[in-house]
């Protein structure tokens, strides 16, 4: 299990490469539930994934790292690994589903990575083939302690900037972000409650935690949600963390997600992709207890036409 010492070590390792994002007060929020936004959309690649990527790649032995890296991702992890590889001057091969928004595919290629497109549900199999062909090191999107620790630096920053935080809302997909943030917050602010948030149309984590075991939803079911970055399922490693650090999971509808994207744009002047806005959608349901609340806006990589449609 990832510890607070692992997360602190990650913070030191990635400090030169990531933005320490601020906590922005949402002055229009409910008085009894004051809200602050942690805008990871302000990272260099537009999402939190850059933290885990730099920690994982930076923690590789140099003789191993020079062989290059391989990743599979629907978008933001792809961009993060491509960017980190470019900074370290090593090759990167990224496997992405064909349905990935073009803005994320193009951004990954812009960082110099070789993109391999695959059919839905085939990312891991194709990535294994690319590892065999290239000799590169696999950097998974969430199923690795270094990835969890890197994402956990968000929770470390929240705890340092607001020790009195009472509620933290964080998106859940593969579980690396929620595992890391929850681990840091629980270690440093034990009074705080941490809630995962996921789409109703991809609510495998909520069902799994209720049943006490991981459950499998088909890729066809999970692909129904507008939140394309929240279509993965937890691994054994992340699920074990989520069982320990989450006080609950809140599910939100696609309609609520769209409303949250709009609210962030018009009220906070922040561009959010649907996956990044789920925490605000959960806050708007009013199901969290009163108290000082921080929401993680996990990313802002949205197709322009999709944003126009939501705002229109």
UniProtKB/TrEMBL annotation:
A Gene Ontology biological process term: D-serine biosynthetic process
- Residues of the Tryptophan synthase beta chain-like PALP domain: 17-299
Query: What's its catalytic activity?
Result: L-threonine = 2-oxobutanoate + NH4(+)
Provide this UniProt record's keywords sorted from A to Z. Answer: Lyase, Pyridoxal phosphate
User: If you read the UniProt record, what top EC class would you report for this enzyme, in one word?
Assistant: lyase
Cofactor annotation: pyridoxal 5'-phosphate
| Alphabetized CDD domains for the sequence | Thr-dehyd
**What EC number(s) does the entry state?**
4.3.1.19
Q: Which domain of life is it from?
A: Bacteria
The GO terms describing molecular function are: ATP binding; L-serine ammonia-lyase activity; magnesium ion binding; pyridoxal phosphate binding; serine racemase activity; threonine deaminase activity; threonine racemase activity
Which PANTHER family does the UniProt record give? SERINE / THREONINE RACEMASE FAMILY MEMBER, SERINE RACEMASE
Q: Report the protein's function.
A: Catalyzes the anaerobic formation of alpha-ketobutyrate and ammonia from threonine in a two-step reaction. The first step involved a dehydration of threonine and a production of enamine intermediates (aminocrotonate), which tautomerizes to its imine form (iminobutyrate). Both intermediates are unstable and short-lived. The second step is the nonenzymatic hydrolysis of the enamine/imine intermediates to form 2-ketobutyrate and free ammonia. In the low water environment of the cell, the second step is accelerated by RidA.
Membership in a protein family: Belongs to the serine/threonine dehydratase family.
The protein depicted here goes by the name threonine ammonia-lyase
């Amino acid at each position: 299990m990832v510890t607070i010492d692992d997360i602190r070590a990650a913070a030191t390792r990635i400090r030169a490469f990531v933005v320490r994002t601020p906590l922005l007060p949402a002055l229009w929020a409910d008085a009894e539930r004051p809200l602050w936004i942690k805008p990871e959309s302000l990272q260099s690649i537009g999402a939190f994934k850059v933290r885990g990527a730099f920690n994982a790649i930076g923690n590789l032995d140099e003789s191993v790292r020079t062989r290059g890296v391989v990743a599979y991702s629907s978008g933001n992890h792809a961009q993060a690994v491509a960017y980190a590889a470019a900074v370290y001057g090593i090759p990167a091969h990224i496997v992405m589903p064909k349905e990935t928004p073009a803005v994320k595919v193009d951004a990954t290629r812009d960082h110099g990575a070789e993109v391999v497109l695959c059919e839905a549900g085939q990312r891991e199999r194709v990535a294994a083939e690319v590892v065999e062909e290239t000799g590169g090191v696999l950097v998974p999107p969430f199923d690795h302690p270094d990835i969890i620790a890197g994402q956990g630096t968000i929770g470390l920053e929240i705890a340092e900037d607001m020790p009195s935080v009472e509620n933290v809302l964080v998106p859940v997909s593969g579980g690396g972000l929620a595992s890391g943030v929850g681990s840091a917050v629980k270690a440093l602010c034990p009074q705080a409650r941490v809630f995962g948030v996921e789409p109703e149309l991809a609510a495998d984590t909520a069902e799994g935690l209720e049943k006490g075991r991981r459950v499998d939803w088909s890729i066809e079911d999970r692909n129904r949600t507008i939140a394309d970055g929240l279509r993965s399922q937890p691994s054994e490693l992340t699920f074990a963390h989520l069982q320990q650090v989450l006080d609950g999971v809140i599910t939100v509808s696609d309609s609520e997600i769209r409303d949250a994207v709009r609210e962030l744009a018009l009220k906070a002047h922040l561009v959010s992709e649907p996956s990044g806005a789920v925490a605000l959608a959960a806050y708007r349901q009013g199901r969290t207890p009163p108290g000082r609340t921080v929401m993680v806006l996990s990313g802002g990589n949205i197709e322009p036409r999709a944003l126009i449609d939501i705002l229109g």
